[in-house]
Protein 1
Amino acid sequence: MELIDGNLIAAAIIAELKAEVAALPGRKPCIALVRVGDDPASVSYVKKKEKTAAEIGIAGRIHLPPVTITQAELFALIDQLNADPGVDGILVQSPLPKHIDEVAVFRRVSDKKDVDGFNTLNLGKVAQEDETGFVACTPAGIMALLARSGIDLKGKHVVVIGRSLIVGKPVALLALQKKAGANGTVTICHSGTSNLPAITRQADVLIAAIGRAEFVTADMVKPGAVVIDVGINRVPDATKKTGYRLTGDVEFTGVSAIAGKITPVPGGVGPMTVAMLMSNTVKAFRQNRSA
Ligand code: NAD
């Protein structure tokens, strides 16, 4: 079994972006990070994004509206950021409070600054294989992990578990694209799928984006398969200072014993998501400048 080290691959991408940004003349790229409320996971994700942006030389503008913000007020903030020529990318950290329509917020972000890749136009561009769009960061990160680990999907059966708009659907579309590194034969499984293990056992590349701790067990995996674990689950653990431990959607000990290659949690897909957000921000800067 070979470990796919997301920390290492993300660090290489960040170093490349740092060199690219250092060579840019004039104003540096800028990302606006909007975090509504104090959800602990969101606090740590936004902190990590802010720190990585600073490391690359991307300016970070942090907006921390209270959890009581109305949808209209959040739209007004997004409109202001959309209109600001000094802001290249906008990230609204999810999850948002229940009284806010998250998809409507994603749609409100200008498609030209949608570095999260969640708005309608950018999701459509993934389907159309239009490279001018922004690909959602986690799916883009998974594809970069595979490419930089020398895994070509052509001729492979790729099974994705999960059909969310932020991971499952876009990663399936990317694996399906008719371009180098992709060209996979893709099956998408979800909560309505019958006999899931019989399908996952056919996977040459298995991508788990379910949100259930250690759901994928060794009996569901073909020996030698590549296993990409997207899940980030907090499992109560009294032995930890935080009171919980992080685990993926894959039961790592059992599956790693038979997989050909596997991503760990933490240290697999997670760091790639942040690296791709930064890559999208530099792309937005370049595209908006040349427009
Ligand atoms: P989601 O809840 O939106 O979607 C989960 C999907 O799993 C659904 O489409 C559902 O159909 C499927 N599912 C649920 N139960 C199932 C079952 N019993 N059998 C088959 N399919 C089932 O979640 P999401 O936003 O796609 O996130 C998935 C996981 O990935 C979560 O743990 C999340 O924290 C993690 N995540 C990680 C990153 C990262 O950067 N590494 C980014 C986004 C999400």
Note: The mean pLDDT is 97.
Protein 2
Amino acid sequence: MYLTKEEERIYDGEEGVAKQKAMELLVALGKIYGADKLIPVGSAQIAGVSYKTIGDAGIDFIRFFSDNGAKVSVNSYLNPAGMDLSNWADAGVKNSFAKKQNEIIEIFRKMGINITCTCTPYLIGIRPKLGEHIAWSESSAVSFVNSILGARTNREGGPSSLAAAIIGKTANYGYHLDENRVANFLVRVRAKLKTISDYGALGVYVGRLVQNSVPAFELVQQATEDQLKALGAAMAASGAVALFFVKGQTPEWFLDSPEIIEVKEEDIEKLKKELTDEKDVDHVVIGCPHCSLDEIKNIAEKVHGKKLKKELWIYTSRQVKEEADKQGYIEIIKDAGGKVISDTCPVVSPIEDMGFKSTATNSGKAALYLKKLCKQKIHFGDVEEITE
Ligand code: F3S
């Protein structure tokens, strides 16, 4: 792998141990994946923020960089943390967890990382351009920016995205190269999809079939951005899809002798039933990936003037929450008894320690992860059904 003189100096430790370690990480990945060189990135998005997922070993890892003076050299953003950073006590988060979580946030802050704590930075104006190389790590965000915006990133891990943020570069392989941005499956969807949960179910179905390949979709009708966000997130969770195309909607559409998959109405219905294990649940979560303003508006309209009998927790970014507050949606949801939570997500917060055993969601990704990682029984359905 070719390194410039400057990169070699960093690799040899002439700019300190933190940059050296970051460079070693990028070069090691580059060698594994056959990269020819490093390329500059426009931004980095760093996962591995929740204390629940990284633990004390993760704190030691990131602290090594900050203690040795590391600073990020490109615009860098954080994935959700393990709690709402200002209202954690209301959500039943324990003091001991909050202390560790705040420690993590301060370490990232010291390195100059923006404390965005969202998996949908593209909903708060962080939208990389077509063809721009970036190093993002949240799988649903990777899927969105690669596919819907046409930016170029691999599914980075927390450590490699942090290394890319510090060096400002990543190894040139995978989805940074034209030859890999080609679909090998053509998915002909013969079903009329209406709701976010329909797209989530389609994503779970197709992700299982194509695993880490690139699918290209022919849909019956145009999908909204929220629906495509749900589709990509579900495929990234049931498989490891990082890039997909939608005919007439995504900026790229390249196919090479694709295998054909047909998806019918009954396939979607069957999968929706399979994702549900229990209809009577303790609580309802919406916002995986984090809700857009439109999604919050839709929920506010559904619960307006009602009194909820079960917990309804809605997850979004801090900025979208502020906007929703200005529009009056947060007050409507609060009056009904619901909560709008920012900075965190249902999967990386410790909901299983808060007494919840069963959860309803409209997200294909959350349906899979809440069962696997948070010991929840699931009711999968659209917003209309689960708020009802
Ligand atoms: Fe976002 Fe958490 Fe879902 S990071 S995509 S809300 S699992």
Note: The chain has 14 helices and 14 strands.
Protein 3
Amino acid sequence: MRAEIQKDILESCRRVIVKIGSSTLTKDDGLHRLNIHRIGDQLADIRAAGVDVLVVSSGAVAAGIRRMGRTDRPRTIPQKQAAAAIGQGQLMQAWEDAFDKHELRVAQLLLTAQDLRTRERYLNARYTIDTLFGWGVIPVVNENDTVAVDEIKFGDNDQLAAWMAGLIGADLVIILTDTEGLYDNDPRKVPDAQLIPLVETIDETLIEATGRTSSMVGTGGMRSKLMAASKCMELGVPMLVLSGQRRDILLELFAGETPGTLFVPSQKRPQSKKWWLARLAQPEGVLHLDAGASHALRQQGRSVLPVGITHVEGVFGEAACVQCVDEQGGLIGHGLCNYPSTEVQQIKGHRSDEIENILGYKYADEVIHRDHFVLANEPIRVGEA
Ligand code: GLU
């Protein structure tokens, strides 16, 4: 069964994300250049078959530490950030070298979660990556560790890879790590732990049974693979966890072998804008709505019109994400606002046919269009957008 499902996935795969952990990319004395070259060779083959390849590469911190002649893991956040700053250049140089012999160019993208939470930055990242793909370039993405502190972090690169799947519309995410896949128990402690070849639902029991393993070198561990897999599944994107230590693992996979663990989503792709709104968007202000507008939004799936807005909180530009609350301050949901806060202040309480008179122009009748709004706890709607 796994073989057939996998065959369909690989045959229709046009865009793949391959995330490689520090444990695969580094060794005791620095970057594991041989592994990087081996993975680069396999990715070049996949690229040659017409598949867009995006690499999420860890390893900057580990490489930086070893470059400084140290062996211990950095203890403080500034130490880790400094190590990443030292190692990132080395890491990119290694990828340059690995792909150069295949006449492939690489591009570095350093992102924080904050970059994906703002619609404009999110779209800029997407357009940049689309352009790179159009040029046949391999984007190599890592978290921008130098500036990322907890609030704006992805958590680890497994999550970054999953978010990138939404951003680029990937057909598959592959995580290369230091175990063969997901086991039903910790294989380092329980000798007869069994590899799980196929996962169709992630529930508490699975998390409990498999989530306790963690690698010493990277930051992820199995729990984070499961978190990334559930993000991918919600996005309708299959995810594979494979051993990065196995020499030709990606070629074996594309040749029809079934290594590691395959997570298959049960749902189709959600509308990309709705998904972004529900999972990534960060509200920058609040619109207070009267009872009629609150009801229309909650019960009738209507848009937000200026007439129903009683009060505006916060200063925001156009296309910002804002929350909508009812007269009691209860959260209704959030959406993208067609007008900046200064203009919403002027048109609030007025009919839509008065917008042009007040502002001197009219962008839209609605302050938030229903298609750009998600109710709090609304399930993400399926269908391409
Ligand atoms: N961004 C980190 C690095 O390049 C790795 C984070 C992770 O592996 O989750 O070293």
Note: The chain has a mean pLDDT of 91.
Protein 4
Amino acid sequence: MATAERQAFYERIAPAHLAPLWEQLHALVTAEPTTSCVPALWRYEEVRPHLMQAGGLITAQEAQRRVLILENPGLKGQATITGSLFAGLQLILPGEVAPAHRHTQSALRFIIEGHGAYTAVNGERTAMQPGDFVITPSWTWHDHGNDTEEPMVWLDGLDIQIVKLLSASFAEQAPAEVQAVTRPEGDSAARFANNLMPVDWRPEVKTSPVFNYPYARTREALETLSRNGEPDPYHGHKMRYVNPASGDYAMPTIGTFIQFLPQGFSTGPYRSTDGTVYVAVEGSGESRVGDQAFRWQPRDIFVAPSWMPVTHRAEDDAVLFSYSDRPVQEKLGLWREQRGNA
Ligand code: GTQ
């Protein structure tokens, strides 16, 4: 208890930049994970009109990145969806360019709407299609452009809060808005995405050399898996995206996952210490996160905080994409999961 004598002591030591641990130990070292992050759902049909209005207010060029942040209601003003990860919906209209820059934050793009706009990474463009998972590795030049006739929207996932925690942010603008194309489209896929790699190639960075994981191939794998075996009771048919050069996650700070839930399938209660952002890709269903129930359909996005029980129920054949900070937690020996009720 903070007696008057103790209070006086605390006030005496404060100018020396000292504070008593025993007054806050219980809040710092908790028995179980605590977070201000709360479960939340963004329905795409509700967000889309706002995004299109942003399209009329500012160009991609002026904005640099025309993104509406999906801000967790429990983390107001912090521009983040979980304690560690950012989520935002980026819009590029026909004819627009989001100018080239680079930063130490890693980014993923999960394509929501539109066909064929490109992102360029280190001199190679990739045309994006719905459901594709595209990576912008740390410190690589990247610009986005839309030479098609329709708006292009994708979900950005970045490790902004992780880099902030570590005070390791660097960023710079490229001299030219659009980076020169130095390699033909499909070059990195040919080198790295066919269970092959150049004979003398050694990885220089921790991110996958495959920078577009096309949905068509992912979907085909899920289809085959669902025919060939029983779904995991807690995950359905769940896979992680892999860096073929290391076998590790595709990105060093963000784990990315895809799962197929057959029609009528319900997962058992599951929780893990990595707060997770989900995107509904196909089908419809309901997910329960803690005491919240979210009904979703394609393009809807929801978030499950660390250590909160999650269940999914698929009303028809459904696919969920998700991302979390699991690679970071695993490397630090912190990651835990619990299958079923305690
Ligand atoms: O496309 O480079 O949502 O730098 C936030 C920061 C996207 C990007 C975001 C970024 C980008």
Note: The longest helix spans residues 44-57.
